[in-house]
Task: inverse folding
């Protein structure tokens, strides 16, 4: 397991465009939007600025969605297409270990990306780190697990490595929309708000924002993420093929 983790980590580091996109894009968007749009750094009624809670939480979600919908499906579908998983199934090293290693590596990338966002936000905009750390960690781990389970389902359905990112994009961009990336959840029409509330991405983004501002996550948001983890985890186990 340890040797496999080292090997897969080295392979991931060689794919630097993926890392650059996953970490660099959210940080770049935070900087561009925060520095170019005055309302991002203005306090409405003396409350939190968008750059303090809303923007960082959405950028964390963007990073994790990129990992779950693009990176994980592409890697696993390529391994299956190349027969790597089938060959491993004939050795003492079960392919499930490779699956676990992939999830650990992508979780680590998500942690690095989130840490960079917190540091950059603090240095450039004077934004505070999440004020409700216990709740933030719970939400981060639960939401990340649910999204990665979704990524495993995409990997299971993708016919090959080239098709996987395209299928992931069809899932990723609607999830970004209902999470409030372009239209804030507070002003969504009622019907769209209901979709957002049960999309996993919507509750994840809102729970991140709440804990960033120092509030505990809402029980409904935690329940939706947990249900998403169970649902997509079960589908991944049922649908995933090693060859």
Result:
């Amino acid at each position: 397991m340890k040797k496999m983790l080292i090997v897969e980590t080295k392979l991931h580091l060689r794919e630097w465009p993926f890392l650059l996109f996953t970490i660099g894009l959210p940080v770049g968007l935070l900087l561009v939007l925060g520095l170019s749009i005055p309302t991002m750094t203005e306090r409405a009624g003396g409350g939190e600025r968008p750059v303090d809670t809303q923007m960082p939480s959405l950028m964390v979600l963007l990073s994790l969605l990129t990992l779950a919908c693009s990176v994980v499906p592409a890697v696993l579908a390529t391994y299956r297409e190349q027969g790597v998983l089938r060959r491993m199934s004939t050795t003492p090293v079960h392919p499930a270990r490779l699956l676990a290693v992939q999830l650990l590596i992508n979780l680590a990338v998500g942690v690095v990306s989130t840490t960079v966002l917190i540091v950059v936000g603090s240095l450039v905009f004077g934004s505070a780190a999440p004020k409700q750390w216990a709740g933030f960690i719970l939400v981060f781990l639960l939401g990340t697990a649910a999204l990665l389970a979704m990524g495993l389902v995409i990997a299971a359905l993708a016919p090959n490595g080239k098709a996987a990112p395209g299928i992931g994009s069809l899932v990723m961009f609607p999830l970004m929309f209902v999470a409030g990336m372009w239209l804030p959840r507070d002003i969504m029409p009622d019907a769209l708000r209901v979709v957002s509330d049960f999309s996993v991405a919507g509750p994840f983004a809102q729970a991140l924002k709440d804990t960033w501002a120092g509030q505990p996550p809402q029980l409904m948001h935690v329940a939706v993420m947990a249900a998403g983890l169970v649902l997509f985890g079960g589908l991944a186990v049922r649908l995933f093929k090693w060859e």
About this structure: The chain has a mean pLDDT of 85. The longest helix spans residues 95-125. The chain has ten helices and no strands. The radius of gyration is 18 Å.
